[in-house]
Amino acid sequence: MNFLNPYTSWSDGKVSFTRSQASRFAKQVADDFNPIHDVEAKRFCVPGDLLFAVLIKHLGLYPQMNFTFSGMVGDGVGIHFDESTPGEIILLDDRGKEYIRASYSGTPNDEDEVTEQVIRNYVRFSGHNFPHVLEPLMAAHNVMINIDRPLVIYESMSLNLEHADISNTQIEHMGAEMEVLGKRGNVSLTFRFLADGNVVGTGEKKMVLSGLREYDASVMNEMIEKYDQRKRDQIDL
After folding, report:
1. Thinking of the domain 5-234, which architecture would CATH place it in?
2. What is the dihedral of CA 122, 18, 34, 43, to 10 degrees?
3. Full-prediction pTM beyond 0.90?
């Protein structure tokens, strides 16, 4: 059984996501409690990591993979795969709006155990970006996101593995950098893949932080406390 079945809806070759499905994936699989993924959120969007997961389950794991995120998927939007170009796949809707594009090369591994393990490990790493990684990074640059309208955009992610014949995988955070351009922050997170305890590759995730303002420790601490409280309140949903 595809472990993503509870978080996806398929019809006529298209995949869509209800608010409940996307929200449960964020909380139960990615450990991500960003309010934009709440069922009742006015600006609700499907987690980018869920789109990544769907692509990995569809394609398998390739040694070299690059994902570019270009649009936020709303609830109930049917998206399909465009695989007309060799080595590339695009997720888009019936109007032709593109949401994610991936390129890939090398010899793939489509074993269920491998793809599920990689997905679970990566999305949990990705879901912990706030506050664990982003808050110290913002403090170091004396900037912070808008607590009333936080906007962190998932821009891209890349994988570079020696091979895809891996097992017992883990992901380790390696470092983070941010470039501040006015009210915009370009963030790059690097990580490495371990298989059976050995380093087998690296990866990079890029995000954009919008609406930056001067860092205020008391305000940021309040935001983190609210985030942690949301997690405690919703952990059993």
Report:
1. Roll (3.10)
2. 130
3. yes
